[in-house]
Amino acid sequence: MLGLFRTERMWTKRPLRGRYDVVIIGGGVHGLATAYYLGERGVRDVAVLERSYLGAGASGRNTAIIRANYRTPEGVDFYHESVRLYEELSARLGYNVLFSQQGHLTLAHTDSAIGGLRVRAEVNQLCGVESRVIWPDEIRRLVPALDLSGRPRYPILAALYHPPGGIIRHDAVVWAYARGADRFGVHIHPFTEVTGIDVAEGRVTGVRTTRGEIQTGAVLNATAGYCSTIATMVGLRLPITTHPLQAFVTEPLKPFLDKVIVSANLHVYVSQTPRGECVIGSEIDPYASYSLRSTLPFLEATAHHTLELFPCLTHVRVLRQWAGVCDMTPDYSPIMGEVPGLRGFYLDVGWGTYGFKAGPVSGRRMAELIATGKTPDLIKSFAITRFQEDRLVGEKAAAAVSH
User: Fold this and answer.
1) pLDDT at 7 over 70
2) Secondary structure of the chain in the HEC alphabet?
């Protein structure tokens, strides 16, 4: 029987060298994707540093929903490219990431919510993203289990239907990018915590870790909820606050839900995994914290709103509950690019609840920036300078619930 199990490592264990061309802080999907796409471009003297195991942060503590139906043209174009990259990821990396494009429905329970969905649908269509407003008859055909009667306090009036949206196996994405980067010769160092970053004459010169010092001329901060902590090592204060985000899963059920359901008014979203579990989440907690503890008030409120949508789940048991941390910016859009006045220090942060959706496109475009020194057009709008220049990219209309 032992011969039936794999014995080789998924990626190579290498010694920590004293110098690398590029050091990436954060061993989640963003850091590993950047390392992979740098390798594709021939930049292979790269180290990925992760203080815990790979995917221990937000990449392993999310609900793995993929979509592109955002509100701003900048956001729609950006996430549209990410969806296209996710579609080809299994073939590109030679590893099944279990991407199921089952469709994504954002529900509207009020007249004003319908107006918001109409605007998003029109922006999506103008940017080439498949998205349209549908009404109760079609919603009922797509999701028979939804309560579309007039009994709930907030009846379902319409929905934004986004067929390319779906769910993915988040840990498989992390492993696939790690394996791909490893094949290019990238050094992956889990359990290696960064304790300091050296700067001289306005540029990065090195990184200090719990395993030794590294000389480098390029450092990428891809640490999600902990990005502010890393930024302070170079004297940079980010316009970011970190909030907990919680979710839970039910016991496995027979397949009954093949769409991702989101209700902005009720602040809840529901999907069903291939194993039959219902994955259920809500909005970020309304306080800044690094806590990873689950709370009873979240479970009670989220379960209550879920039952307004799916009364059939009344007697279903909750199996487990967890929390992650999210790096929230004032305009709900990320911060990407090199920091002005600090050569060699790059940011890929501020993802809030959108980070996993953006893994491939962020990695690809940050790798392009680091390799060529030129900022790709797709991420120019997300520069940190936008806050002082008063040109925010407001995505809150597409972030009414954390999904």
Assistant:
1) no
2) CHHHCCCCCCCCCCCCCCECCEEEECCCHHHHHHHHHHHHCCCCCEEEECCCCCCCCHHHCCCCEECCCCCCHHHHHHHHHHHHHHHCHHHHHCCCCCCECCCEEEEECCHHHHHHHHHHHHHHHHCCCCCEEECHHHHHHHCCCCCCCCCCCCCCCEEEEECCCEECCHHHHHHHHHHHHHHCCCEEECCCCEEEEEEECCEEEEEEECCEEEECCCEEECCHHHHHHHHHHHCCCCCCEEEEEEEEEECCCCCCCCCEEEECCCCEEEEECCCCCEEEEECCCCCCCCCCCCCHHHHHHHHHHHHHHCHHHCCCCEEEEEEEEEEECCCCCCEEEECCCCECEEEEECCCCCHHHHHHHHHHHHHHHHHHCCCCHHHHCCCCCHHHHCCCCCCHHHCCCCC
